[in-house]
Amino acid sequence: MSKEVLLDNNAFLVSETDEKGVIRFANEDFCKIAGYSLEEMLGKPHNIVRHKDMPKAAFKSLWQCVQKGEIWTGYVKNATKDGGYYWVFATVYPFESCDNSKGYLSCRRKASKIEIEKAEKLYEEMKKNEM
């Protein structure tokens, strides 16, 4: 069984990707929790931290939302480099920089035990529907 990594109450994970989801920036909190160095993360798809328990429909919803220019929020179970996992409440913001390149900024905080329990139930149902 994989080990859960608990975020500190004041942890704030930030990453920026291009419009294809390739990491352009990751802050120290994100690197530390995920277990990757910044060098290992840069240029990699953000889904290197995707956990197998996450239903495909959750990310489909995220992508549909941000590609329309809308802000997405939700609970996400991510995988660590060493096979563990951690839960976050994520907010993903689409943006366009001054050079007209588009991308996404994701800000994540610790999810509460109650929030995680609700998300687990919802995601279990969603995974059943995928089969």
TrEMBL record:
PROSITE patterns: PAS. CDD domains: PAS. Pfam families: PAS_3. Gene3D superfamilies: PAS domain. InterPro entries: PAS, PAS-like_dom_sf, PAS_fold_3. It comes from the Bacteria. Residues 18-44 form the PAS domain. This is PAS sensor domain-containing protein.
